[in-house]
Design brief:
Number of strands: 18
CATH superfamily of the largest domain: HUPs
Distance between the termini: 66 Å
CATH architecture of the largest domain: 3-Layer(aba) Sandwich
Radius of gyration: 22 Å
Order of helices and strands: EEEEHEHEHEHEEEEEEEHEHEHEEH
Structural class: alpha/beta
Shape: globular
Strand order of the largest sheet: 8-12-7-2-5-6-13
């Protein structure tokens, strides 16, 4: 039996933008805690930026045992080359056995650069992570306590379990919203390691002349009620009905990838495998067929109501309540019923 490097910590790369921690880093601490306890090691978080040491307390409260804060003025705004350089050096110095990133725009850019530099494996867009064993086919190699990197494959038709037994660290990106954010514990205590990276202007291939952060249009993860529209809505003008129903319920507006690709609504509203994973108390799916990629992002809603003209639409398989009918008739009736109750 070949043992994995059981001494290295489990690391979560905690992404921050303009001084604010991204939720996905906090979410990953919940899964990181499970992995660290299964391996009997510490859970670490690493955060890079200009003034990031202040995030350490929050990361510790959400489960980190140790926070590595790398601060430098040249890390004020994300650029691939300096961030990858610093993170590679930190990994080489501290030797974590697992490093997980959020599958955000930054994470999807940074993780493969680090993996390439370290000649380590990387699995993208995981939906789950576990610790397990692996027997190499055709050999007597039996690997113990490896990271199972679990993700949908072939358009979501199968679930693949990927292992990386030969190269370290084991690395994966995980989609935002897949893991539940752990509750903060103000009583938790942990270690903070401050690092001053060795960087110069030559490490920055670009010079940022102006920085204008874009504000997210909607926070779907925090919404208790979501009304989402899909290709079956029929067009941008009909999508006004989705907004009207959402406004009457005090809900957020979501969408399938088809609606976003058609230009009917901004991508910030997209729910699904390539969008946001949500768990609202009520999810109303209007004109959404229910492809597996969309169900992956909303299947854990407490109550699902589906409105679709096609009685055989897959969305009805996961819906708690289904309405077969024309949304142009059904939605006005729902809005009228809501107004009468109010």
């Amino acid at each position: 039996m070949i043992e994995a490097n059981q001494q290295g910590d489990v690391w979560v790369v905690a992404e921050q933008n303009d001084g604010y921690l991204h939720d996905v880093g906090l979410e990953l601490l919940s899964k990181g805690r499970e992995l660290a306890e299964a391996l009997g090691v510490r859970l670490g978080a690493v955060v890079l930026g200009a003034n990031v040491a202040g995030h350490a307390e929050r990361l510790i409260q959400h489960g980190a045992d140790r926070v590595v804060a790398a601060e430098h003025a040249l890390l004020a705004h994300y650029q691939t080359q300096p961030y990858a350089k610093v993170l590679c050096r930190l990994i080489e110095e501290h030797k974590p056995q697992i490093v997980i990133y959020g599958a955000t725009a930054v994470g999807r850019d940074l993780a493969p650069r680090v993996a390439s530099s370290l000649r380590a494996g990387l699995t993208a867009d995981c939906t789950d992570l576990e610790i397990g064993e692996h027997v190499e086919p055709g050999t007597r190699k039996h690997y113990h306590r490896l990271l199972y990197q679990i993700r949908p494959a072939f358009g979501g038709n199968i679930i693949a379990t990927i292992v990386n037994p030969e190269r370290w660290p084991q690395m994966a990106t995980v989609r935002e919203g897949v893991m539940r954010m752990p509750e903060a514990d103000p009583a938790r205590r942990g270690e903070v390691v401050s690092v001053k990276p060795d960087l110069s202007e030559s490490d920055l291939p670009l010079r940022i002349l102006e920085h204008k952060p874009a504000r997210r249009l909607v926070n779907l993860k925090a919404a208790r009620i979501i009304v989402a529209g899909g290709a079956g809505v029929g067009g941008k003008e009909n999508f006004r009905l989705i907004w009207d129903l959402a406004n009457s319920l005090g809900a957020a507006v979501g969408a399938s990838r088809a609606a976003v690709d058609n230009g009917w609504i901004d991508k910030d509203h997209q729910v699904g495998q390539t969008g946001t994973t949500v768990r609202p108390a009520l999810y109303i799916a209007v004109g959404i067929s229910g492809a597996v990629q969309h169900r992956a992002g909303m299947g854990e809603a407490q109550k699902i109501v589906a409105i679709n003209a096609d009685p055989s639409a897959p969305i009805f398989q996961v819906a708690h309540y289904g309405i077969v009918g024309d949304l142009n008739r059904v939605i006005p009736m729902m809005i009228d019923a809501v107004k009468k109750r109010v």
